[in-house]
Amino acid sequence: MGDVKIGFSMYKAQKGVIKCKLEYDPDEKIILNVDITGDFFFYPEEALEEVVKRLKGIYISRDEISRVVKSIYEEYNVSSPGVSIDDFVKVVYDAGVVDE
Q1: Which stretches within the chain are classed as H helix?
Q2: 11 with 18: CB under 8 angstroms?
Q3: Exposed, middle or buried, 32 (CB in 10 Å: 0-12/13-18/19+)?
Q4: pTM, to two decimals
Q5: In degrees to the nearest 10, what's the CA dihedral of 55, 60, 61, 64?
Q6: pLDDT for 36 beyond 50
Q7: How far is CA 36 from the centre of its chain?
Q8: What is the pLDDT confidence band of residue 98, given thresholds at 50, 70 and 90?
Q9: How far apart are CA 56 and CA 61, in angstroms?
Q10: Which domains does the chain have, with CATH numbers?
């Protein structure tokens, strides 16, 4: 594993603001740690903790992030009015955008 970088992102969704702090390996493009906070409704709350947990160790790509978030939405029957799966994908991906 190479260096560790920290990225930040914030996104204004239809009904809320999502903030993301991402620690990642820029060489391997792997998420090492992630923190998602903000002013949005996400129920059940433990599902957001599960999103954070399952994002660790995955490749930083829209497809991979989307796969994880979508699976949590389905598994936990998540309710997040005004905040979509795509909103979460955008904020996480943008925090880890590696010089492309």
Answers
A1: 45-55, 62-76, 85-95
A2: yes
A3: middle
A4: 0.93
A5: -30
A6: yes
A7: 7
A8: low
A9: 13
A10: 5-95 (3.30.390.50)
